[in-house]
Write a structure and sequence with these properties.
Blueprint (H helix, E strand, L loop, with lengths): L2 E5 L2 E4 L4 E8 L7 E7 L6 E6 L6 E3 L7 E6 L4 E6 L8 E8 L7 E2 L3 E6 L1
Parallel strand pairs: 2-11
Antiparallel strand pairs: 1-3, 3-8, 4-5, 4-9, 5-6, 7-8, 9-10, 9-11
């Protein structure tokens, strides 16, 4: 059974930074793509970033391009999301996922809260 555990969330002021981590177990981590989604207050869950199994291909939502960086360390079964220049609109629960193909078939963590304050 695949398990994903996010960490690194917290409260930060606008313009600040946070680095989220996602530790995965029970899956062939190095062969799966990884992604981060988020769900803000009163909003639907939305795509943030994704990374291919070998880290060669990354994709970002337009709202975070140039501010967020997704990466992975296959030796540690861990994915990361470095978030810089945080804005109030980045406040959300951030979820990491692992899998192949359609996101609806992926495994997801419980999420970590990120709160950006002015």
């Amino acid at each position: 059974q695949v398990q994903l555990t996010e960490s690194g969330g917290g409260v930060v002021q606008t313009g600040g930074s946070l680095n989220l981590s996602c530790l995965t177990s029970g899956s062939p981590f190095s062969t799966y793509a990884m992604a981060w989604f988020r769900q803000g207050p009163g909003r639907e869950r939305e795509f943030v970033a994704s990374i291919s199994w070998n880290g060669a291909v990354t994709q970002y939502a337009d709202s975070v391009k140039g501010r967020f960086t997704i990466s992975r360390d296959n030796a540690k079964n861990t994915a990361f999301l470095l978030m810089n220049s945080l804005e109030l609109e980045d406040t959300a629960v951030y979820y990491c996922g692992s899998g192949l193909g359609d996101y609806k078939y992926w495994s997801w963590g419980q999420g970590t809260q990120v709160t950006v304050s002015s």
